[in-house]
Every structure is written in structure tokens, then in C-alpha cells.
Amino acid sequence: MLKDKPDKQSIFQKFPKTFWIANTMELFERWAWYGLFAVLALYLTNSTDEGALGFTQSQKGSIMGTVTAILYFLPIITGALADRIGYKRTLIFAFIILSSGYWFMGTVHTYNLVYFAFLWVALGAALFKPVISATVTKTTTKETSSIGFGIFYMMVNVGGFIGPIFSSKLRDAYGWRIVFIMAASAILVNLVLVTLLYKEPDREKNIGDSLGQAILKSLKNIWTAIQDLKLLIFLIIMIGFWTMFNQLFYTLPNFIDQWVNTSMIYNSIANISPGLAAAIGTKDGTIAPEMMVNLDAGAIILFQVLISALVMKFRPVNAIISGIIVNAVGIGIAFGTGNGFYVILGIFIFALGEMASSPKFTEYIGRIAPKGKEALYMGTSFLPVAAGNFFTGYLSGDLYEVWSDKVTLLKTEVAKRGLEIPEISAGFSQNDYFNRAAELMGMSHQQLTDYLWNTYNPSKIWMVFSAIGVATIIGLFLYDKFILGGKDQANTERE
Hints:
Elements: H1 17-45, H2 57-73, H3 75-85, H4 87-105, H5 111-138, H6 145-174, H7 177-196, H8 211-226, H9 229-245, H10 247-250, H11 252-259, H12 263-272, H13 274-280, H14 289-293, H15 295-310, H16 316-335, H17 340-368, H18 374-380, H19 382-403, H20 406-417, H21 430-441, H22 445-456, H23 462-484
Helix pairs in contact: 1-2, 1-5, 1-6, 1-7, 2-5, 2-19, 3-4, 3-5, 3-8, 3-18, 4-5, 4-7, 5-18, 6-7, 6-15, 6-17, 9-19, 9-23, 12-13, 15-17, 16-17, 16-23, 17-18
């Protein structure tokens, strides 16, 4: 009698079809989201004569911070909704809302309407997030979860890498409106995928409950869950990680746009390969901020699976602590200098830390979720992300405006010198203001930028961002030592 042959099936072959469909939809959703979000800070605050909205940094922080916080808080409700009405139906609703929201957001220009349009987009994203995370959780096992979530996070970054590239090149060639059309179109691809190819995974159905009862039950369950001191403290500590992490998209694009001379990077690349410089640069011979920040996603695409394999056997808290240490170093370097090459180095270092920490956070929450409650617990994991975005909005808005915003610092200098320059308005843009100030001070554009940099030291904001990372590291170290006692965090194991 022949013995059964050993299972030589590749770990990638152990994932069902739905796992790969879910990851593909994640790619296109992230394409749309980051295609907009990577340039949103610039669109909201840059000069109106460039087609942007000309809002203040504080207004930018309010829109991005509060709306995105709401986005990450809503999965507490939408996770229960998905368990009630089904994952597939929820995804269809999500994609209809997202596509219409992206299109509408590109047609409005006042603060209130932009806020509303972005909130509508957030609703669609909040419907999508817990379902797609729960689908990945349900289609992985203890054996495949680390690689599975590594693949999932890599696909997040494939979409997050492609989106900003398209946004950067399209807005450079055709203006801002095309960015929103691109985002809406990417979501329509997902609407086709979910309709034709997505298979509903097994889930717990609350047939006896009304929708209101199901939502109330989910809120009660979450309240019960966070009464667990170990979980609650962990979620609170991780607010610091997400507050630091989000500076990459909220603040760094503005910092690069205002203070970093990217033409030196363009020229260095052009000396090696003019074609490559033209491909990644703008028609003005610079590198767009979103293309520099996009190095984060590019590095993760190349190295995420490798890093996931390296930290596969690490305890999640150990991997997260190690990653945040690297994050804090990277964010400090990125904001600590106006040298574009150091900014690139900082972004790359930050990406290395992100690869180790962020997927492990998601994996950890997924592994402790009781069977049949994956969407609900994945919704819980968004709590520190929501709070992190809220605090990021303040730091990127109010704090950045006072400490580092070029327009604010220039106004301060103009007032000190007693210069008479019209206020920025619909008929007198930020660029007009800067050009008039440079003329009155007898400086070129670059000389005035250098003067403001040397006089007001806008890079000092790096100390705040890195300090948040250090505080998070200390918090996790104490959490591991005194709360967990150095033991594995998983309370349940799934076959």
C-alpha cells in the first residue's frame, strides 16, 4: 500500500480564489484613494492660479484629519452592517458611493462642499475596509496568515504606488480635474470585479436581529472588548504610531513643495538618464512631492514579502517596536533638512520600518478575533487609526501652519518689515503674494525661500514627529514587559 505523498503545495497555492479577488480589489481601491490622497494636501493648499483651492494649512488639517478619522471610526458600524446584509452587497454599495464621491469632489471648490464630498468618499471607504480585511482573514489560516497579510499589505502599496504616479503625470499634463476622474474610474473597475467574480465567504448571520439591533450589538461587543485592559492599552499606544505614520501624506508633500529644491534631484537623474528624469519629473524640471513620497510604496512593493518572511516568527509586539524605531529615524531625517536627497533617504528608511510594523498590527488583531466576528474585530482595529488621523490633522494643520508653513512665515516677515502687500484673495493668489514680497525685498524666489528657512527654521517640526514615535516605542516596551509579560498575544488559534 502506497503512503500518501507529502504535501508539496506552494503556500501561494493554498490561498483560495476569493483571497486573490479581494487583493485585486484592494489594489484598485488603494489606486483611487492614494491617487487622490497623495496629492490632496497640495490640492487643498496650493495657489489658486495653479488650479488648486488655496485653503490654509489649518483648513487642510481639518478636512483631512477629521474626515479621515470618521472614515476609520465608521467600520465599527459598517462591519456589523456587512455581517448583516452580506459582504458582496456591501462592496457593491461601497463602490457606487466611492465612484460618485470622487467625481463630485473634483467639481466643487468651497470649503463646505469639499468637506461634504470628502465625507461621502469616506463613507464608501468605511464600507469597503472591514469587509476586505475580514475576507483576507477568512481566507487565510494560522499557517498562511503572516504571508497572506504580507501579500495584502503589498497589494495596498501596489495600488498606493500606481495611483500617485498617474495623478502626478496627469495633473502635470491636464490639470487637477483629471485626478478625480481617474479615481472614480479605478473604483468602477472594482464594481465589475465584485459583481462578476467575488464569492461570498462563510460568515455569521444575525438573521433574528434588525439592522439597528445588529449595530447596537456591535457597539456593545466593542465596548466589552475594550474593557479588556490588554487590548485597550495596546490600541491607545498605537495611536502614536498612526499619528507619526500619517505625516508622510498629510505634511511631507507640503514640506517638500514649499522648502525642498527638487530640481537638483531632477538634474542629477537627468545626468544619468534623461529619459528616466522626464518619466518621473515634471515639465518644469522638478520632482513632484507625491513622486518622492511614493518611494515609500515602491520600496514596500519590492521588499514587503521578504520583510514579512523575516519577521514571520517574531512576536507581533517585537516586530512592531522594531519597525517604529526605524520609522522614527526615517521621519526625522525626512523633515530635518531641506536637502532632497536626505528626504529620499528618510522616506526609504521609514518604509523599512513600516514593512515590519504595520502588517503585524493587522495580523495581530485578525488572529485574536473570535471565529465569525472577524469583520467586527477588524472594525475595532481601526480605532487607533481613527484617533491617529484626528491628531495628525491638528499637527499637519494648526502646528504646521504656525511653525513651518511658508505662506504664514512670509506674512510674519512682511509684517515685521512693514511692507504693504494685498491680502491673498480670489484676485491675488499665494504666488502673487510671494512674487510681490520677493520683489520688495530684492530677492529671487530661491533666495527668499532660503532666507525664510534660515530665519524661522521650519524643519524643527521633525522633533515633534520623531518624539511621538519615541513615546510610542517606550509605551509598547512597557506594555510588553508589564502587561504581556513577554508572552504571545494570540488568545485564539484558527485552523
